Write the structure tokens for this entry.
Amino acid sequence: MHRLFQFRKLGWALLLSLFLSILCVSLFIGSPAKAQKTLKIATEPAFPPFEFQGSNGELVGFDIDLLKEIGKAAGFQVQFQSMQFDGIIPALQAKTVDAAVSGITITAERQQAVDFSRPYFKAGLAIAVKSDNQDITSLESLQNKRVAVQIGTTGALEAKKIPGAKIRTFDNAPLSLQELLNGNVDAVINDAPVTLYAIKENNLKGLKVTSQLLTEEYYGIPTAKGSPNLDDINRGLTAILNNGTYEQIYRKWFNAQPPQLPEST
Ligand code: ARG
């Protein structure tokens, strides 16, 4: 009887310690992660394959994947906010958003207004024309021609250099390409990867890109000047450049090996 009682006690003690250890383990596993901050990210979402509406209306693209992965690596959540391209820098300055991703070229002029992350993509401007066009081959050959561009872009700035050109500005790049397809302008100046993607993926039959790129440009992620978020963004970007995640995203959207990027422009 006495022994039996002791056994029972032991049984209870074992059961209790089992219960306590399960409790400890589950508390540990289930402990809510440190609350992450959420960064509001501005984008102009008609710039495939960098940012555009997917089939369910959701935001997709290279830039979108990039920012999500940067956030994962650096420990912040992202919340995208769509706006006009020429509203992005003012929104950063007014601090209504924390950062932006929108195929935004790092330029000296913009660096006066905002801070940029390290470069994350190598791009450049290209001239698009109708496939049968033979005489437009360079910026010089665009003199006195009708040229379509997206408002507020480096393409719009480049077009301003052309003597006598009649420049038509559009809210987004696809609208400017449509205008060329319709025969209402002679050329479009736009970021080469976007124009090439549109011709290939959206089947813009009858358009081509002239062989020479007009510029070499690098995209960066801008924040307000002095923003404490820039360090996090750069840390996350560097991490995914080094751990293969960047390459994975690049391959997904461009089906190619990413080119070498400089650490700064
Ligand atoms: N890279 C060009 C620029 O920075 C064009 C960017 C346009 N981006 C967009 N999402 N529409 O001016």
